[in-house]
Design goal:
The N terminus is likely disordered. This protein has one domain: TonB-dependent receptor, beta-barrel domain (Maltoporin, Chain A, Beta Barrel). The chain has a 22-stranded antiparallel barrel. Strands 3-8-9-6-7 form a 5-stranded mixed beta sheet. It has a 3-stranded antiparallel beta sheet with strand order 15-37-36. The chain has 5 helices and 38 strands. The protein has 658 residues and is mainly beta.
């Protein structure tokens, strides 16, 4: 649970913590970890976290309106419950939300603007993480308060955008302290699509004998007016149509708060303990604008939990064993304020509470078989019990089924094993076999329609094999190439007829490349490329022909090609320039593979000029070629629909301090 900062020097010295919860050199791990450091975070100045994460190989985050998004990590862009529960979003190794209460837009709760770095694991998360670390995870690392700094940024841009961040850290009478504030607002480039988002983060580290303590807290407040799809083939190409919002009443208001106490204790020369105790609370009001009912949803949950691990280190490796536990109480209310019609009655559709108790044990170890060959592996056993209470009448009303009180439990087992071989100076080969798991989400279990049943729902299981090579040179040249193949079983989703599918199966194969090439002392080329094929491995005929699934079909919203290439030029110490080429390849917009989105290419330009010590001006020109494109393309209810991408935008800012 240490949050060591990346070390300077050769790429082999880059330290990561996400793979095992402890600091280790990235190149020595069989787990592929992409690192977006503080310099990258400042350079991007992301208006949406998708801008930052999509620099990593294997990652494709669809940007929605405001803070909304859909995520893909070694996967198609997943929606609904699959999108909410297939990726684990963390802050300093602790999940932003309780796993069974995931939110498809869960990354809006991360204080990413203030992060010291972001680490991304592609593929199953390994033994130290449980349910939801299925296709991958994102770990947002908070700043190290022992690094004294004072920094403030103000940025203004197109469509009424304004961003303010301020941070201060250093030694205090109580220990090393940090506090940061981030505020962002925008009018929105589409009608009735404003956003206000504020985050605050604090941290205090201190030592007592052989023990290091860290107290951390974060809070997020979100107010968003939501713009929805535009309809019609290639409607995103019409700027006037793209700016329209057919659901101006849509909104999302949310709050999240987290607090944790971390401890690292050196028991002896070979033994150490690390642990954390934490609490979280969040709630949200949301207009279900995509349903005919336009109902209001009220949802939230409160949690307390602990993480613990004991590590024994030897001259040949290490072994960690640990136990985690968490209790959560969550609720959901769906209320239709419109007059009743058809299968949508006015009033309460759902009103329930769920108590969830999760417990897990795990082990993870590394062992040097030779001077050049290391073995690593581990496993995690986790069980979750849900106690569901219905606060309204049991039975079906319209298209809504309210279950009577009940309890359910699910147990998962996730092993993994890998090898890392240093076969030449600067070269390493690695291979890993791993299993990822996803227990059902609470709204998949208890937010049902007549004819749907809980029986038959099993945890999703993803089995993964991957292998690759890494190159790192003292001059800064790095390359990582990874090939993977994965099979996912017990895939749960609701088909176009609104029926639960509990036995879906998909396959995933791909290749990821990531590298940095210092061409000269002033010019560096870097980037990431992803090639992936994602297929359905089962048949599912439905009434909606466009959503009929046939074995061998490509999974919809899964581009075969993605790349992000940057040229960074520093002609003088005080001047930095960057040009970024973003490519999203063609993909199918429906499960039957009849509707297609052609893909797009974007050019982004960024620059920064240090005018004097402690004062830096920076600017960005996003979508410099003013390309008409879609952030998301979909085919549903007999027609195309899109989230249109923003036209050319400009932003200017000033940064004070270090």
């Amino acid at each position: 649970m240490a949050t060591a900062q990346p070390a300077p020097g050769t790429p082999d010295e880059v330290i990561v913590v996400s793979a095992t919860r402890t600091a280790q050199a990235r190149d020595r791990s069989a787990v592929p970890v992409a690192v977006l450091d503080s310099g990258t975070i400042r350079t991007v100045g992301a208006q949406h976290i998708a801008e930052l994460l999509n620099r990593a190989p294997g990652v494709y985050v669809h940007r929605g309106n405001g803070a909304e998004h859909l995520t893909a990590i070694r996967s198609p862009v997943l929606s609904a419950g699959a999108g909410a529960g297939s990726f684990l979003y963390l802050e300093d190794g602790i999940s932003l939300r309780a796993p069974a209460f995931a939110n498809i837009n869960g990354l809006f709760e991360a204080v990413d603007e203030l992060a010291s770095r972001v680490e991304i694991i592609r593929g199953p998360g390994g033994a130290v993480y449980g349910s939801n670390a299925l296709h991958g995870l994102v770990n947002v690392i908070t700043p190290d308060p022992s690094i004294a700094a004072r920094r403030a940024e103000l940025e203004l841009g197109s469509y009424g955008r304004a961003r303010l961040t301020a941070e201060v850290s250093g030694q205090t009478r109580l220990g090393d302290g940090y506090i940061g504030l981030s505020v962002r607002s925008e009018d929105g480039w589409r009608d009735d699509a404003s956003l206000f988002r504020a985050g605050i983060q604090t941290r205090l580290d201190w030592g007592q004998g052989a023990t290091r303590w860290s107290l951390r807290a974060s809070a997020i407040h979100l107010e968003q007016e939501t713009a929805t799809f535009v309809n019609g083939f290639e409607a995103y190409r019409d700027e006037v149509l793209s700016r329209r919002n057919s659901n101006p009443e849509a909104f999302r208001d949310a709050r999240a708060f987290r607090v944790s106490v971390h401890a690292d204790h050196r028991i002896s020369e070979r033994w150490s303990f690390s642990g954390a105790a934490y609490g979280r609370s969040n709630d949200m009001e949301f207009r279900l604008h995509f349903l005919p009912s336009r109902a209001l949803e009220f949802t939230g949950h409160d949690s307390v939990g602990v993480q613990s691990a004991v590590t024994r280190t030897t001259s040949h490796g290490s072994l960690t064993v640990g136990a985690d536990g968490e209790w959560t109480r969550g609720y959901l209310i769906e209320d239709q304020t419109l007059p009743g019609f058809g299968a949508f009655p006015q009033g309460i559709h759902y009103d329930y509470e769920v108590d969830a108790l999760t417990g897990a044990v795990f082990a993870h170890g590394r062992h040097a078989l030779t001077d050049t060959l290391e073995l690593e592996g581990g496993a995690r056993l986790e069980t979750t019990r849900f106690d569901y209470t219905n606060n309204t009448a049991n039975g079906a009303i319209g298209r809504f089924l309210r279950l009577p009180d009940r309890s359910d439990s699910f147990t998962t087992f996730a092993p993994h094993a890998g090898l890392v071989w240093r076969f030449a100076d600067g070269w390493r080969a690695f291979a890993r076999a791993a299993r990822g798991v996803r227990a059902p989400q609470t709204d998949e279990l208890y937010r049902l329609q007549p004819g749907q049943e809980i029986d038959g729902i099993e945890p999703e299981v993803l089995d993964s094999l991957e292998a690759g090579v890494r190159l790192s040179r003292p001059n800064g040249l790095t390359l990582e190439a990874t090939a993977f193949t994965m099979v996912k079983r017990n895939v749960f989703f609701r088909d176009a007829d609104g029926i639960n599918v509990t036995d879906g199966r998909t396959t995933h194969e791909g290749l990821e490349l990531e590298g940095v090439w210092p061409v000269t002392g002033a010019l560096t080329i870097s980037g990431a490329l992803t090639w992936g094929i994602h297929r359905y491995d089962f048949d599912r005929p439905v009434g909606q022909a466009s959503e009929a699934i046939a074995r061998g079909n490509r999974v919809d919203t899964a581009p075969e090609w993605l790349w992000n290439v940057r040229a960074s030029w520093r002609p003088a110490d005080a001047l930095r320039l960057e040009a970024e080429w973003v490519h999203v390849g063609e993909y199918f917009a429906d499960a039957a593979n009849d509707a297609v989105y052609a893909g797009h290419d974007l050019l982004n330009l960024r620059g920064a000029l240090q005018v004097r010590d402690g004062v830096e001006l920076f600017a960005s020109l996003r979508n410099a070629a003013n390309t008409r494109y879609a952030e998301r393309a979909d085919f549903a209810f007999g027609g195309y629909r899109y989230f249109p991408g923003e036209p050319r935008t400009v932003s200017l800012g000033v940064r004070l301090g270090g």
